[in-house]
Amino acid sequence: MSETVLTAEAGRRTGSSDSRRLRAADQIPAVVYGHGMDPLSVSVDRRELRHALSGAAGMNTILDLTVGGQVYPSLIKEIQRHPVRRNVQHIDFIQVDLNEEIVVAIPIHLEGEAKEVSAFGGLVDLSMPELQVRTTPRNIPDGLTIDVSEMDMDSVIRVEDLPLPDGVEAVAEADAPVVTVLTMRTPVLDAEEAAAEEAAAEAAEGGEGEGGDSDGEGDSDSE
Question: Do 151 and 133 fall into the same domain?
Fold first, then answer.
């Protein structure tokens, strides 16, 4: 995985009013820290950030964060968004050592059609949309793709079944389910079951009525 250059401006003033002024100018307040460095308040251009993260690696893109001629190999640690508008309000960058292992979350995608599951009214469910892995920054996979076409109603794909690249280790428990099959009740079956229950109830009521008539006749004879 290659690095992507992102230029940041240092020396921004902190505080809500200054942050609002930056955002109005399409600049995002940010901070970079890690590996013994003092936290550094910076700002990045919103459009440049969007372009830097537009590749396949997305949020796991290694950034050469350039601040006043100094380059900080970084990953995005956290993004804060507006609770309503959902636009980016603040970013935490963490400086990384490209030779040291880190823990990151990578996305999981499904491909293929589980025809046997569909035939029996089931539904393939992605129980774990992201997987925590440990690896070096340059070895971070863009994501994992799982083929579900061979799944049946009893199938479960667990962490230990995932095809991880060399040098990438899953942090989650080996037996944790990643993809499962949900059993869905179809309207046709529900209607059939309801009709069967209704017929059984009517039969039971009819049997009780016949039993009552017999008892009545017996009492009349005894008189």
Answer: yes
Q: Which residues of 26-57 are buried (b: 16+ CB within 10 A; e: fewer)?
A: ebbbbbbbbeeeeebbbbbbbebbeebbeeeb
pTM of the model: 0.73
SS3 category, 190: helix
Residues 11 and 62 in one domain: yes
Residue 195 to residues 104, 129, 158, 192, 199: CA-CA distances in angstroms? 53, 40, 40, 5, 6
User: What are the tens digits of pLDDT across the range 107-119?
Assistant: 999 999 999 999 9
Q: 4 by DSSP, 3-state: which? A: strand
The total number of structural domains that make up the chain:
2
Burial (0-12, 13-18, 19+ Cβ within 10 Å), 7: middle
pLDDT in tens, 8-42: 998 776 777 788 888 889 999 999 999 878 999 99
